[in-house]
Amino acid sequence: MSAGDGSAGTLLGPVEVVGTGLLGTSVALACTRAGLDTLLSDTSPEHVRTASGLGAGVPRTPEDRPQLVVVAVPPDQLGEVIAQVLSTTDAVVTDVGSVKGSPLAAVAGHPHAERYVGGHPMAGSERSGPLAANAALFEGRPWAVTPHARSSAAAIALVEELAAVCGGVPIRMSPEEHDKAVARTSHVPHLVASVVAARLAEAPAEHLALSGQGVRDVTRVAGGDPRLYGQIVAGNAEAVVDLLGDVRRHLDELIAAVSGNDRGRLEELLSLGVEGTRAIPGKHGGPPAPTGSVFVSVPDHPGELARLFADAGQSGVNIEDVHIDHDPGRPVGLVELVVAEDRADHLVGSLESRGWVTHR
Fold first, then answer.
1. Domain check: are 40 and 139 in the same one?
2. Cis before 14? omega within 30
3. Of all helices (H) and strands (E), which one includes residue 225?
4. 306 lies in which domain range?
Protein backbone atom coordinates (compact mmCIF):
# COMPACT_ATOMS: atom_id res chain seq x y z
CA MET A 1 0.00 0.00 0.00
CA SER A 2 1.53 3.32 -1.02
CA ALA A 3 0.70 6.93 -0.32
CA GLY A 4 -1.63 8.81 -2.62
CA ASP A 5 -0.11 11.32 -5.02
CA GLY A 6 -2.98 13.80 -4.99
CA SER A 7 -2.63 17.56 -5.05
CA ALA A 8 -2.08 19.62 -1.95
CA GLY A 9 -4.99 19.35 0.43
CA THR A 10 -6.50 16.29 -1.30
CA LEU A 11 -6.87 13.50 1.22
CA LEU A 12 -6.59 10.24 -0.69
CA GLY A 13 -4.98 8.05 1.95
CA PRO A 14 -3.74 5.90 3.35
CA VAL A 15 -4.34 7.46 6.75
CA GLU A 16 -2.43 5.92 9.63
CA VAL A 17 -3.76 6.25 13.17
CA VAL A 18 -1.16 5.82 15.90
CA GLY A 19 -2.96 4.95 19.11
CA THR A 20 -6.23 3.03 18.96
CA GLY A 21 -8.04 4.32 22.02
CA LEU A 22 -11.34 6.19 21.99
CA LEU A 23 -10.26 9.13 19.81
CA GLY A 24 -7.86 7.27 17.55
CA THR A 25 -10.29 4.47 16.78
CA SER A 26 -13.10 6.98 16.23
CA VAL A 27 -10.93 8.84 13.68
CA ALA A 28 -10.09 5.53 12.00
CA LEU A 29 -13.74 4.49 11.85
CA ALA A 30 -14.70 7.84 10.31
CA CYS A 31 -11.91 7.59 7.71
CA THR A 32 -12.90 4.03 6.82
CA ARG A 33 -16.52 5.14 6.54
CA ALA A 34 -15.38 7.79 4.06
CA GLY A 35 -13.69 5.13 1.92
CA LEU A 36 -10.11 5.89 2.90
CA ASP A 37 -7.57 3.10 3.39
CA THR A 38 -6.81 3.25 7.10
CA LEU A 39 -3.81 1.80 8.93
CA LEU A 40 -3.65 1.10 12.65
CA SER A 41 -0.71 0.99 15.04
CA ASP A 42 -0.46 0.90 18.80
CA THR A 43 1.89 -0.35 21.50
CA SER A 44 -1.02 -2.61 22.52
CA PRO A 45 -1.56 -5.38 19.95
CA GLU A 46 -4.88 -6.13 21.66
CA HIS A 47 -6.13 -2.61 20.97
CA VAL A 48 -5.14 -2.93 17.31
CA ARG A 49 -6.97 -6.27 17.04
CA THR A 50 -10.05 -4.81 18.68
CA ALA A 51 -10.09 -1.68 16.51
CA SER A 52 -9.49 -3.77 13.38
CA GLY A 53 -12.31 -6.10 14.39
CA LEU A 54 -14.61 -3.09 14.67
CA GLY A 55 -13.85 -2.20 11.04
CA ALA A 56 -11.57 0.74 11.81
CA GLY A 57 -8.78 -0.38 9.49
CA VAL A 58 -5.94 -2.87 9.20
CA PRO A 59 -2.65 -3.18 11.09
CA ARG A 60 0.14 -1.18 9.50
CA THR A 61 3.02 -3.08 7.88
CA PRO A 62 6.57 -1.79 7.27
CA GLU A 63 5.83 -1.51 3.54
CA ASP A 64 2.94 0.94 4.00
CA ARG A 65 3.46 4.62 3.16
CA PRO A 66 0.70 6.73 4.69
CA GLN A 67 -0.20 10.13 3.27
CA LEU A 68 -1.35 11.39 6.67
CA VAL A 69 -0.55 10.14 10.17
CA VAL A 70 -2.86 10.95 13.09
CA VAL A 71 -1.13 10.62 16.46
CA ALA A 72 -3.63 9.72 19.18
CA VAL A 73 -1.40 8.70 22.09
CA PRO A 74 -1.52 9.93 25.73
CA PRO A 75 -0.51 13.58 26.22
CA ASP A 76 2.84 12.78 27.84
CA GLN A 77 3.92 10.87 24.72
CA LEU A 78 2.70 13.21 21.98
CA GLY A 79 5.89 15.17 21.29
CA GLU A 80 8.10 12.09 21.21
CA VAL A 81 5.79 10.14 18.89
CA ILE A 82 5.19 13.07 16.53
CA ALA A 83 8.95 13.60 16.19
CA GLN A 84 9.46 9.89 15.53
CA VAL A 85 6.80 9.82 12.81
CA LEU A 86 8.27 12.92 11.14
CA SER A 87 11.67 11.18 11.09
CA THR A 88 10.49 7.81 9.78
CA THR A 89 7.84 8.77 7.18
CA ASP A 90 7.29 11.43 4.54
CA ALA A 91 3.68 11.86 5.66
CA VAL A 92 1.89 14.93 6.95
CA VAL A 93 1.47 14.49 10.71
CA THR A 94 -1.27 15.75 13.00
CA ASP A 95 -2.54 14.78 16.44
CA VAL A 96 -5.70 14.90 18.52
CA GLY A 97 -4.16 16.05 21.80
CA SER A 98 -5.91 18.43 24.17
CA VAL A 99 -2.86 20.69 24.51
CA LYS A 100 -0.88 22.07 21.58
CA GLY A 101 2.01 24.02 23.09
CA SER A 102 3.78 21.06 24.69
CA PRO A 103 4.00 18.78 21.63
CA LEU A 104 4.95 21.73 19.42
CA ALA A 105 7.84 22.62 21.73
CA ALA A 106 9.14 19.06 21.30
CA VAL A 107 9.09 19.19 17.48
CA ALA A 108 9.54 22.86 16.60
CA GLY A 109 13.24 22.38 15.82
CA HIS A 110 12.71 19.18 13.83
CA PRO A 111 14.07 19.37 10.25
CA HIS A 112 10.69 18.28 8.87
CA ALA A 113 8.46 20.31 11.19
CA GLU A 114 6.72 21.86 8.14
CA ARG A 115 4.81 18.56 7.82
CA TYR A 116 3.32 18.86 11.32
CA VAL A 117 0.02 20.62 12.02
CA GLY A 118 -1.63 20.25 15.42
CA GLY A 119 -5.26 19.27 15.77
CA HIS A 120 -7.80 18.87 18.54
CA PRO A 121 -11.35 17.58 17.95
CA MET A 122 -13.60 18.89 20.70
CA ALA A 123 -15.31 15.58 21.40
CA GLY A 124 -14.87 12.74 23.82
CA SER A 125 -16.48 10.54 26.43
CA GLU A 126 -16.01 9.44 30.02
CA ARG A 127 -15.41 5.98 28.54
CA SER A 128 -12.08 4.99 27.03
CA GLY A 129 -10.55 2.38 24.74
CA PRO A 130 -11.45 1.23 21.23
CA LEU A 131 -14.76 -0.33 22.27
CA ALA A 132 -15.99 3.16 23.22
CA ALA A 133 -15.21 4.51 19.73
CA ASN A 134 -17.85 5.81 17.34
CA ALA A 135 -17.51 6.93 13.72
CA ALA A 136 -20.00 9.73 14.43
CA LEU A 137 -18.17 11.03 17.52
CA PHE A 138 -17.00 14.21 15.75
CA GLU A 139 -20.17 15.03 13.81
CA GLY A 140 -20.81 18.76 14.00
CA ARG A 141 -18.13 19.23 16.66
CA PRO A 142 -15.46 21.95 16.48
CA TRP A 143 -12.05 20.63 15.41
CA ALA A 144 -9.21 23.03 16.21
CA VAL A 145 -6.48 23.08 13.54
CA THR A 146 -3.38 24.74 14.96
CA PRO A 147 -0.59 25.35 12.42
CA HIS A 148 2.70 26.78 13.63
CA ALA A 149 5.03 29.21 11.87
CA ARG A 150 6.72 26.51 9.79
CA SER A 151 3.62 24.50 8.82
CA SER A 152 3.25 24.19 5.04
CA ALA A 153 0.03 25.28 3.32
CA ALA A 154 -0.39 21.77 1.89
CA ALA A 155 -0.14 20.20 5.35
CA ILE A 156 -2.67 22.65 6.80
CA ALA A 157 -5.13 21.93 4.01
CA LEU A 158 -4.78 18.17 4.47
CA VAL A 159 -5.46 18.34 8.20
CA GLU A 160 -8.49 20.58 7.66
CA GLU A 161 -9.78 18.04 5.15
CA LEU A 162 -9.32 15.26 7.72
CA ALA A 163 -11.47 17.20 10.17
CA ALA A 164 -14.19 17.60 7.54
CA VAL A 165 -14.01 13.91 6.53
CA CYS A 166 -14.59 12.99 10.18
CA GLY A 167 -17.65 15.26 10.31
CA GLY A 168 -15.96 17.97 12.37
CA VAL A 169 -15.98 21.72 11.80
CA PRO A 170 -12.38 22.92 11.29
CA ILE A 171 -11.48 26.06 13.25
CA ARG A 172 -8.01 27.43 12.60
CA MET A 173 -6.15 29.11 15.46
CA SER A 174 -2.62 29.40 16.80
CA PRO A 175 -1.35 26.80 19.29
CA GLU A 176 -1.04 29.51 21.96
CA GLU A 177 -4.61 30.75 21.50
CA HIS A 178 -5.89 27.18 21.47
CA ASP A 179 -4.32 26.40 24.84
CA LYS A 180 -5.80 29.53 26.40
CA ALA A 181 -9.21 28.64 24.96
CA VAL A 182 -9.28 25.05 26.24
CA ALA A 183 -8.05 26.15 29.65
CA ARG A 184 -11.13 28.38 29.83
CA THR A 185 -13.71 26.04 28.29
CA SER A 186 -12.45 22.60 29.36
CA HIS A 187 -9.51 22.27 31.74
CA VAL A 188 -10.52 24.71 34.47
CA PRO A 189 -14.21 23.62 34.38
CA HIS A 190 -13.00 20.05 34.85
CA LEU A 191 -10.87 21.01 37.84
CA VAL A 192 -13.67 23.03 39.43
CA ALA A 193 -16.11 20.14 38.89
CA SER A 194 -13.62 17.83 40.60
CA VAL A 195 -13.39 20.15 43.61
CA VAL A 196 -17.19 20.19 43.92
CA ALA A 197 -17.44 16.41 43.45
CA ALA A 198 -14.78 15.81 46.11
CA ARG A 199 -17.11 17.36 48.68
CA LEU A 200 -19.60 14.57 47.91
CA ALA A 201 -17.11 11.79 48.61
CA GLU A 202 -17.01 12.79 52.29
CA ALA A 203 -20.74 13.53 52.64
CA PRO A 204 -23.08 11.57 54.94
CA ALA A 205 -25.51 9.22 53.19
CA GLU A 206 -28.51 11.30 54.25
CA HIS A 207 -27.03 14.31 52.45
CA LEU A 208 -26.45 12.34 49.27
CA ALA A 209 -30.05 11.14 49.36
CA LEU A 210 -31.05 14.69 48.42
CA SER A 211 -28.92 14.67 45.23
CA GLY A 212 -30.73 16.01 42.18
CA GLN A 213 -29.99 16.68 38.53
CA GLY A 214 -28.20 19.92 39.37
CA VAL A 215 -25.34 18.25 41.22
CA ARG A 216 -25.10 15.59 38.50
CA ASP A 217 -24.78 18.29 35.83
CA VAL A 218 -22.10 20.20 37.73
CA THR A 219 -19.99 17.13 38.55
CA ARG A 220 -20.41 14.94 35.45
CA VAL A 221 -16.98 15.63 33.92
CA ALA A 222 -15.28 14.96 37.25
CA GLY A 223 -15.72 11.25 36.53
CA GLY A 224 -12.95 11.32 33.91
CA ASP A 225 -9.68 9.39 34.22
CA PRO A 226 -7.50 11.27 36.78
CA ARG A 227 -4.26 10.05 35.18
CA LEU A 228 -5.26 11.30 31.72
CA TYR A 229 -6.55 14.65 32.95
CA GLY A 230 -3.51 15.07 35.16
CA GLN A 231 -1.36 14.84 32.03
CA ILE A 232 -3.59 17.23 30.12
CA VAL A 233 -3.64 19.89 32.83
CA ALA A 234 0.09 19.59 33.50
CA GLY A 235 0.74 20.14 29.81
CA ASN A 236 -1.25 23.39 29.88
CA ALA A 237 -0.14 24.58 33.31
CA GLU A 238 0.52 28.24 32.52
CA ALA A 239 -2.90 28.99 31.03
CA VAL A 240 -4.67 26.90 33.67
CA VAL A 241 -2.92 28.57 36.60
CA ASP A 242 -3.81 32.03 35.28
CA LEU A 243 -7.49 31.14 35.13
CA LEU A 244 -7.46 29.34 38.47
CA GLY A 245 -6.20 32.59 39.96
CA ASP A 246 -9.29 34.31 38.54
CA VAL A 247 -11.50 31.58 40.01
CA ARG A 248 -9.83 31.95 43.40
CA ARG A 249 -10.44 35.71 43.41
CA HIS A 250 -14.07 35.13 42.46
CA LEU A 251 -14.46 32.57 45.26
CA ASP A 252 -12.96 35.02 47.75
CA GLU A 253 -15.53 37.59 46.68
CA LEU A 254 -18.33 35.03 47.03
CA ILE A 255 -17.14 34.06 50.52
CA ALA A 256 -17.03 37.70 51.55
CA ALA A 257 -20.51 38.37 50.15
CA VAL A 258 -22.07 35.30 51.79
CA SER A 259 -20.36 35.69 55.16
CA GLY A 260 -21.17 39.40 55.22
CA ASN A 261 -24.78 38.81 54.17
CA ASP A 262 -24.20 41.23 51.27
CA ARG A 263 -27.17 40.16 49.14
CA GLY A 264 -26.60 42.84 46.54
CA ARG A 265 -23.01 41.82 45.87
CA LEU A 266 -23.96 38.13 45.91
CA GLU A 267 -26.59 38.72 43.24
CA GLU A 268 -24.06 40.66 41.15
CA LEU A 269 -21.64 37.74 41.28
CA LEU A 270 -24.37 35.23 40.46
CA SER A 271 -25.41 37.42 37.52
CA LEU A 272 -21.91 37.04 36.09
CA GLY A 273 -22.57 33.31 35.96
CA VAL A 274 -25.81 33.90 34.08
CA GLU A 275 -23.91 36.05 31.57
CA GLY A 276 -21.41 33.26 31.12
CA THR A 277 -24.07 30.65 30.33
CA ARG A 278 -25.57 33.02 27.77
CA ALA A 279 -22.19 33.49 26.11
CA ILE A 280 -21.88 29.78 25.24
CA PRO A 281 -22.57 29.38 21.50
CA GLY A 282 -25.91 27.87 20.63
CA LYS A 283 -26.92 25.22 18.14
CA HIS A 284 -24.51 24.75 15.20
CA GLY A 285 -22.23 27.37 16.72
CA GLY A 286 -24.73 30.18 16.22
CA PRO A 287 -25.94 32.68 18.80
CA PRO A 288 -27.94 31.11 21.64
CA ALA A 289 -31.70 31.25 21.07
CA PRO A 290 -34.31 31.61 23.84
CA THR A 291 -35.45 28.20 25.05
CA GLY A 292 -38.09 26.88 27.40
CA SER A 293 -38.34 23.65 29.37
CA VAL A 294 -41.24 21.24 29.41
CA PHE A 295 -41.12 18.69 32.26
CA VAL A 296 -42.80 15.34 31.72
CA SER A 297 -43.39 12.56 34.26
CA VAL A 298 -42.33 9.28 32.63
CA PRO A 299 -42.93 5.81 34.12
CA ASP A 300 -39.61 4.05 34.74
CA HIS A 301 -40.04 0.96 32.58
CA PRO A 302 -39.03 -0.05 29.03
CA GLY A 303 -40.53 1.73 26.05
CA GLU A 304 -41.79 4.85 27.80
CA LEU A 305 -38.99 7.16 26.62
CA ALA A 306 -39.48 5.94 23.05
CA ARG A 307 -43.21 6.63 23.33
CA LEU A 308 -42.54 10.12 24.71
CA PHE A 309 -40.16 11.02 21.89
CA ALA A 310 -42.57 9.65 19.30
CA ASP A 311 -45.40 11.74 20.74
CA ALA A 312 -43.16 14.81 20.92
CA GLY A 313 -42.27 14.24 17.28
CA GLN A 314 -45.95 14.15 16.37
CA SER A 315 -46.29 17.63 17.86
CA GLY A 316 -43.95 19.07 15.22
CA VAL A 317 -41.75 20.66 17.91
CA ASN A 318 -37.99 20.17 17.61
CA ILE A 319 -36.31 19.05 20.84
CA GLU A 320 -33.09 21.00 21.44
CA ASP A 321 -31.89 19.12 24.52
CA VAL A 322 -32.98 16.45 27.00
CA HIS A 323 -32.29 15.93 30.71
CA ILE A 324 -33.54 13.08 32.89
CA ASP A 325 -33.91 13.25 36.67
CA HIS A 326 -34.94 10.11 38.53
CA ASP A 327 -37.36 10.47 41.42
CA PRO A 328 -35.92 8.36 44.30
CA GLY A 329 -39.32 8.16 45.98
CA ARG A 330 -41.45 7.01 43.04
CA PRO A 331 -41.12 4.63 40.05
CA VAL A 332 -41.05 7.55 37.61
CA GLY A 333 -38.50 9.83 36.05
CA LEU A 334 -38.81 13.52 35.28
CA VAL A 335 -37.76 14.26 31.71
CA GLU A 336 -36.92 17.84 30.81
CA LEU A 337 -37.47 18.61 27.12
CA VAL A 338 -35.72 21.83 26.08
CA VAL A 339 -37.37 23.48 23.08
CA ALA A 340 -37.63 26.90 21.45
CA GLU A 341 -39.35 29.25 23.89
CA ASP A 342 -42.18 30.06 21.50
CA ARG A 343 -42.96 26.34 20.97
CA ALA A 344 -43.05 25.20 24.59
CA ASP A 345 -46.76 25.83 25.21
CA HIS A 346 -47.68 24.03 21.99
CA LEU A 347 -45.65 20.99 23.11
CA VAL A 348 -47.35 20.98 26.51
CA GLY A 349 -50.79 20.94 24.90
CA SER A 350 -49.83 18.27 22.41
CA LEU A 351 -48.34 15.94 25.03
CA GLU A 352 -51.20 16.42 27.50
CA SER A 353 -53.67 15.53 24.75
CA ARG A 354 -51.83 12.21 24.48
CA GLY A 355 -52.09 11.50 28.21
CA TRP A 356 -48.74 12.77 29.50
CA VAL A 357 -48.47 14.68 32.80
CA THR A 358 -46.47 17.84 32.15
CA HIS A 359 -45.56 21.17 33.68
CA ARG A 360 -43.40 24.16 32.80
1. yes
2. yes
3. none
4. 289-359
